[in-house]
Amino acid sequence: MSNFSDYCDRNFTHTIPNFTVSFGFYIGLGVLGNLVAFILLLKQSKFHKWKVFYRLVLMLVCVDLAGIVIFSCISIIESPLTKWADSDSLCKVESILISFISLTNLFVVTFIAIERFLALWHPYFYSSVKGHPLAMLSPVAIVIVTAVLASLALTQSNFVKIYPCNFCFINIYSKNYADYIFAFVYIIIGLVLVAVAIVMNILVAIALSRGQRGYSRQRESRIYITNDKRDYCGMLFQIGAAIAEVAVCWIPIMIRMLITMTGDETSEKDMKNNYLFFRFASWALVVDPWIYVLLRREIIMNICIFFQRQQRPRLTSSGDAVERKSNDERKSLANDEKRASYGTI
After folding, report:
1. Half-sphere exposure in the Cβ direction for 240 (13 Å, CA)
2. How far apart are CA 102 and CA 67, in angstroms?
3. Nearest CA among 37, 31, 26 for reference residue 59
4. What is the pLDDT of residues 146-203, one digit of tens each?
């Protein structure tokens, strides 16, 4: 089966995928996670002062949230059992948006990995460039670059509905090489970004395991990584989760797209398998805020402290109140020290 230009028009009543994920759960978890991460970043702005790392994370959260909302609305409105209104225009818009959001996600994740690498392996160089205007404007530069790359698809690609016919993307099923020049560019850029992100994160994990000196964003100085094993576990868990997310969500879809375009024949079963990998990639928008914001150790500690305070009995004695205030101040200082030591990554 080599021509899929009218596949959805001919078979839309039979395009129910074998692999399904609760769509409502996906939307709810994605919107909730990104919104909570966005609120936490804003509430802690006085603490992190919007350094490069936190600007990149904020941009990642905003892009992921926008992607989930936009694509969910399109999927709900233009389901396989409904007729597409002005399908060509909608296909173009959705394909460009998918290209833009996916490339932006990969660029931001890679830049975060590079920023961590520089903070640990080259702290003096990092301290000299972290406040440079170009570094502070890196999120803007990413948006411009990805917007230009995504817009190139308008002149070098055509777009089709992808199984199960509820979203559009670059036509990877055509055997006319001129039709998917942009697809090759998209895959090459994606694989390069994935490789850089994985290598940088592995080097960061190596530096953490060696107790290497790193740059503290909060203390604005070069300090040793804390010897607290809990800090090590939290840092390494975050790095491992970031590597796993990139490997599971992005590598399979890039390789699968390349195989589909270079293969001789593509069957309907291959289309269904491709949809599985598209779904894996879409989950990156849901997982990102949990890895980079919500599951950070200092966030979990603050939540635990909050609930512990809510469970304490009310004190009526003035002496007990003074003692409680003193204990809270000591714990607050201890938490600030832990948070500063954890600021390396």
Report:
1. 8
2. 9
3. 37
4. 999 888 877 766 777 777 777 788 888 777 776 678 888 899 999 999 999 999 999 9
Q: Which residues contact 138 (CB under 8 A, 6 or more apart)?
A: 52, 55, 56, 111
CA distances from 87 to 166, 208, 310 (A): 11, 51, 54
Cβ(96)–Cβ(152) below 8 Å:
no
Give me the long-range contacts of 294-302 (CB less than 8 A, separation at least 24): 294/33, 294/36, 294/37, 294/40, 295/237, 295/238, 295/241, 296/234, 296/238, 296/342, 297/230, 297/231, 297/234, 297/235, 297/342, 298/335, 298/338, 298/339, 298/342, 299/40, 301/335, 301/338, 302/335
Tell me the torsion sign for CA atoms 203, 207, 208, 214.
negative
Largest CA distance in the chain: 82
List the one residue out of 183, 159, 162, 160 whose CA is nearest residue 268.
162
Question: Could you count the other beta carbons within 10 Å of the beta carbon of residue 174?
Answer: 19
User: Mapping DSSP to helix (H, G, I), strand (E, B) and coil, where does residue 239 land?
Assistant: helix
pLDDT tens per residue across span 226-283: 445 556 677 788 899 999 999 999 999 999 888 888 877 666 777 778 888 888 898 9
On whether the CB atoms of residues 239 and 204 are closer than 8 A, the answer is yes
Please say whether the beta carbons of 82 and 299 come within 8 A: no
Residue type, 269: K
Q: CA separation (Å) from 149 to 68, 104, 145, 188, 299?
A: 21, 10, 6, 12, 36
Pair 15, 8: CB distance under 8 Å: yes
Contact between residue 342 and residue 234 where contact means Cβ atoms under 8 Å apart: yes
Question: Which residue is it, tokens 């000591």?
Answer: 330
User: What does the block give as tokens for 57?
Assistant: 């994370």
User: What is the C-alpha to C-alpha distance for residues 162 and 257, in angstroms, rounded to an integer?
Assistant: 12
